[in-house]
Amino acid sequence: MFPRLKMAVSKAGYTLLSVWLVFHVFCVFIAPAAMPPASPLLEDGYRIALPYNEALFLNHGYHYFAPDPGASTLIAWSIPRAGDAPLVGRFPDVSIRPRLLYHRYFMLAENLWSFDDETQSEMQRAYAKHFAMIHNAPKIKLSRVSHEPSSIVRIQAGGKLDDPEMFEEESLGEFDFSAPPETSRSSSAGSL
Amino acid sequence: MQRPLGLLSHSGIVQCGLRWVRDSKTAWRRFWFEPADPILLAFLRLLTGGMLVYNLFVWTLDLEAFFGNEGLQPLATVRRLHETRFIFSFWVWIEDACLWPVHFACMAIAAMFCAGLLTRVTSVLSFLITISYSQRVPIANFGLDQILGILCLYLSLAPSGAALSLDSLMRRRSAQRSGKCVAAQVKKSAAVRMAMRLIQLHLCSIYFWSGHAKLKGSTWWTGDAMWRVLANEEYQTLDLTWMAWVPWLPYLIAHVTVVWEVFFVVLVWNPRLRPLILLTGVVMHVGIGAFLGMWTFGLIMIFAYLAFLDPDAWRRRLNRIISRTQQRRSMIESSVESGRSGIESKNFRIP
């Protein structure tokens, strides 16, 4: 009787494991498949797999440099100084070492724009606060800088990768940390 | 005598179907559960564990800025982002006062996992650590975090500490002490095969969808995409603008990348093509490391290729190296011994 039970349990375990493997592989393939544009069928499959993929940190699109490699994004900050030129900086900054830490800062600037407006606004405030605290300043201005890669034709004509016309700057506002948190953002975003 | 297909009897069709089901079941069992030597998975554990330790070490350099409650990614914002999702991260329960002790404990566990100490426990903990860090700082994530999470997940499912580990060393020592015969061969395991298959299929998914996503963009068709990547000053670590005078080269790299990524899922299963496909991948990832400065991402992808190698062939190679080393050592020892006895006999003859 006992060996039979053992065999039945082992068979049930094998079947369960096989079912899990099918489901797991389905989840692994459906997460990137449902990245937009996607059919309602793929979206439904994605929704079935979503809790599992989120719990195991498998909910990724793997869209490396796709669909088109775009301009890179940097965050510039400027601290006004009375009677002096403002203190300026931007991240990612190539002086950040090691390279992995540089990439973490790069992702802070690059990935932010894929989140909702509320998250973007809270994160911008957090970035501003971080750099204001480092420089012990009550006020700081942030801006988003887009750096478009130079084309082949432009380089052939004598252009450089860091030519000023390849950068586009957009103000994200001024943050005042001497004031209460609700009113700390004194001016809204606008094109410079 | 062969019967035409139209005259195939009903029972013949049923038998044919039953044979197909039986063959499929055998093929399924062989594919997922044929016991495999853990040597390559153990080597993958060493490399992945090393990468995890390095990743955590780099977080140490700016821990409070990234993980502090009021840091670059405030805890309240991350909690709000995760509140409707099935996310696990122990960092959302950690207050600033415990930041450093928890971080150092995580580093210690990752180091134990890398060295193969209490691997069954530390591998699961390392997976939880990996995803907890990544989920706490969602905006600072990139490909490295995704692949590290994937590898730690699969390494925690199998006995990745069965070889090249402190666990196996201690097991051997205790067996020697108790006078038991120490098995020269490491036990093969079905779980090892399953973990290796899962890594293989996951890599296929990553490359296929990565290539598929590139096909949605126009610049991968025009070939400009690779130039745009190489000319991106924030990524590049070496000046590659000389390629503007040999434009066919970035165009060619762009086309080869897309074709290789899309067809990896098919071609890598062909034993003859597998070395070429993997070698192309190694070249591509070394390029990502050398020219785009993402060595961590490039290396972790290359590490994952170990799942495509034959563990038995690598075990044989390893055994050959070990036996050659032992032979050389014994030759040196015997020549030293004979030299010493010669000197001693000379000394004896010359009073």
Features:
heterodimer, A: 192 residues, alpha+beta, 2 domains, 6-stranded antiparallel sheet, 5 helices, elongated, disordered C terminus, B: 70% helix, globular
Strand-residue proportion of chain A: 15-25%
Structural class of chain B: mainly alpha
Number of domains of chain B: 1
Tell me how many strands of chain A there are. Answer: 6
What is the ordering of alpha helices and beta strands of chain A?
Answer: HHEEHHEHEEE
Mean pLDDT of chain B: 91
Q: Pairing-aware structural class of the strands and helices of chain A?
A: alpha+beta
Quaternary state reads heterodimer
Largest sheet of chain A: 6 strands, antiparallel
Give start-end ranges of low-pLDDT stretches of chain B: none
Task: Indicate the radius of gyration of chain A in whole angstroms.
Answer: 25 Å
The largest pleated sheet of chain B is described as:
none
Please name the two chains that share the biggest interface, counting residues whose Cβ lies under 8 Å from a Cβ on the partner chain. A-B, 63 and 76 residues
What does the radius of gyration of chain B come to?
A: 27 Å
Average pLDDT rating of chain A: 90
Q: Counting H and I runs of at least 4 residues, what is the number of helices of chain B?
A: 15
Helix content of chain A: 40-55%
Report how far apart the termini of chain A are: 82 Å
**Would you report the number of β strands of chain B?**
0
Mind explaining what this structure looks like?
The complex is a heterodimer of chains A (192) and B (351). In chain A, helix 1 (2-33) packs across helix 2. The longest helix of chain A is centred in the N-terminal third of the chain and has 32 residues, at 2-33. In chain A, strands 1, 2, 3, 4, 5 and 6 form a six-stranded antiparallel β-sheet that branches. Chain A has two domains: 2-55, no CATH class; 72-191, no CATH class. Chain A has helices at residues 2-33, 40-55, 99-111, 117-134, 152-156, and strands at 72-81, 84-91, 139-147, 167-176, 185-187, 190-191. Chain A is an alpha+beta fold. Chain B has 351 residues and is an all-alpha fold. Chain B has one domain (35-178, 187-313). In chain B, 70% of the residues lie in helices and 0% in strands. Chain B has helices at 10-33, 39-60, 63-67, 75-82, 99-115, 119-136, 143-157, 166-177, 190-215, 219-222, 224-230, 248-267, 274-292, 295-304, 311-349. In chain B, helix 9 packs across helix 12 (248-267) and helix 12 crosses helix 13. The interface between A and B is large, with 63 and 76 residues.
